[in-house]
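REQUEST ID: PR-0412
SUBMITTED BY: lab tech R.K.
PRIORITY: routine
TASK: structure prediction, single protein chain
INPUT:
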Amino acid sequence: MTSPPPLPSYSGDRLAERLAAGPVVCGEGYLFELERRGYLQAGAFVPEVVLEHPEEVAALHRQFVHAGSDVVEAFTYYAHREKLRVIGKDGILEPLNRQALEIARGVADTTGTLLAGNICNTGVYEPADPATHAAVRGMFTEQVGWAAEAGADYVIGETFRYLGEARIALEVIREAGLPSVILLVAGHEPVTRDGVDIVEACRELAACGADVVGLNCVRGPATMLPLLGPIAGAVDVPVAALPVPYRTTAEQPTFHALRDPGPTPLPEDLPFPTALDPFTCHRYEIADFTRRARAAGVRYFGLCCGAAPHHLRAMAETLGRTPPASRYSPDMSKHVYLGADTRLRAANQAYRNSL
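STATUS: complete
OUTPUT:
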């Protein structure tokens, strides 16, 4: 029997090595999951939980790896200078970032997974204002610098609505000598806020040296999927897809746009962000998306705001993985009423239609 060919050498680029071996799964969605658990405030969504309850962040990292994530992403999303200024806590910027990286480093080291740093949209960038460009660059430089010091394998720059802001993120990551995953947002229309078609924006980022390009957040599986094939056809780097696990539609293509006609009044009449439960995708929808996205050319997979470990397990299993959590994947054959195992009591099986 012949041995498989060795992986290409990437001079220590562990992300490239993992991608050469097959699809990469990256578990995200910390903001919503920790808000649901009562450790983070919706609205500002600043991850103070990193300092206040580091054990909860570490536990969530481990649970996502248990479910199939190849990556531990440091919880530094919205941990930039502007977000902390808004809540009046500028002084925790560096401790929060360093603690988040230390927590993620510990889990990555013990599980053999990749460690990713993270930067994101700032809320500061204005295309026509060079002063905001400098401010954004400064914020990214701080966070990427701390990620580099922590030994991150790569940095994820994500949820960018402006191509210009994504370009700055890419430049800062490349200046630090780290591989990059750059992710854009496709809102109601698949166009960036600075007026660039989303496919062309991904093409430009790939041409500028991004190692992986694609989309994350805002759109659910049904409304992100149609954009993935055109992106994959336009670039020569791996394509990423990390939708939110919500049932968005052509009429309501983002989770901000979803409306619930139910009888209970909602704050501002909006399900986003705290009443999205009725729109949540089940695991089989995530599996179907994964199959379709892979066929469209996606190589870097994940889920964004709203994701839970069972969603991630479905994604990993669909990609042919058997993560530790697969030990507990559903097996209804032994259910007291719905099962078919011969050891079950016939009287209970006969009662199934009366449930």
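NOTES: The CA atoms of residues 117 and 236 lie 24 Å apart.
REVIEWED BY: pending
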